[in-house]
Amino acid sequence: MKPYLLLFAFCVVLLSIVSFETIKSQGNVGQSLVPQYLAMVRERAICSTTALLDAVTGSLFTMDKKRSYSGQLLKDAEDIKPTKRNPQGLVCDRWVVITSVNAPTVVVKQLAESKEDLCVVVVADKKSPVEYDVDRSHLVYLTVEDQEKLTYKIMKMVPWNHFARKNIGFLYAIEHGAKQIFDLDDDNELISVEDIPSQVFETKKKSFDAVHTSQYVTNPYMIYLNHPGEYIWPRGYPLEAIKMEPDYVFVPVNKTSEIRSIGVIQYLQDVNPDLDAIYRITNTIPATFDKTKKKCLILSKKSFSPWNAQSTLFNSDTFWGMLLPMTVHGRVSDIWRSYFTQKVMWEQGKVMSFCPSIVNHIRNQHRLIKDFDAEMPLYTQAEALLRFLNDWEPKQKSIAGMMEEMYIEMYERGILEKKDVEFVQAWLQDLVSIGYRFIWCFCGKQQDGCSEQEEGGIVTRPHPIMRFSLDIERITIVCAIIPYSVIVCAERLTQFNETHNRASH
Hints:
By secondary structure, this protein is of the alpha/beta class. The protein is built from 17 helices and 13 strands. Helix 14 (399-412) runs antiparallel to helix 15 (418-433) and helix 16 packs antiparallel against helix 17 (486-504).
């Protein structure tokens, strides 16, 4: 017998002995270990057995349909009524949301000690301290007991000791008056504690450049890099694009309408930027960002960039996009969120912005190999996901409808699990119940002069201006009577024509 066959036989025998002894010790003789192993796989947030097999056989992950969703769909808006609520406690326009299992960290103390016009909510977990020794005048510490009293639908779904508990803080802030929410990690510190509202929440004092590119991804880290000749990329950036030569054109932005179209701002983190395990394993010292580069960047539509849950500002018209999926690892959840949200933002007429660092990231201790294992979906699935999203044309025309449709697509293609479809449905219903209103605009885009309307809740039916079998003439009239760009309206007419022609064939 050949040596490699002998080695193979030995390994099989050894594995059988170990497996038998393991089962025997657990009192489960005769039961298969396969279900246990699959449970471990699911627990590690590998979305499907197919994805796992792809990883070990060397085949590329594809966004083909792997299964079908057969669960319930959201009800129509008329059946979902906002719950009359009288929120108790702090009410603010500007909120900071943090999750933590630690005693008050540097950034928590900085925010608590500031006398600025803002509020902070810290979402505890079962590993968090019961006592939280910090000034509570504009800080809310949601203990385990506090959270158990909340009536949000997602409360029954979010597991304890899980990254997704941050979603509870988002809903709490929205219910308590938030018009802007700063999504922040507890292992950061503010570089400056002077005029925090201006640093974080206000755009009027910031200057912007638009990044024009035909590439499907944009790497903002390279734009702000402080060390010429080095290479750096954010966590979640497709590995296939790392060595792609950047093709960016920077155009100064002065129009108020373009700045108003910003739905999300990602502030970079200095000292220890958000990098994946591959970068950290292969590089000794993380690169830093050039402090002389003061301008923010507005990214092009159709060009994705990953952003995280470390220092990210959401305006009210993108609150729906804050949801952190729960069936993937925390090292993946915020990145998938960023990609899903960007796609729906573009449909809404909104864009993404990156701004220079306002925090230093004092990273908690990590085992890089564990991070590498947790981040595997980012390495193997990101490129296929982004190319799919760029080509994806949602059938639903409302924001809530697109979100539900998006999550179903992600489940069917092995990116998420079914629980996340149910999760986004509960999230959307919670938003409505606490009074959040989804914004849409005639002619499809939100700009100066565009008449904003409110959907008033979850809508899975067609967009309001498309509900009544409208013909081209009616759409033309709608666009004509509203002070709005002729070009934009022409685009919508073209889209309608294309859709009508496809339907007729």
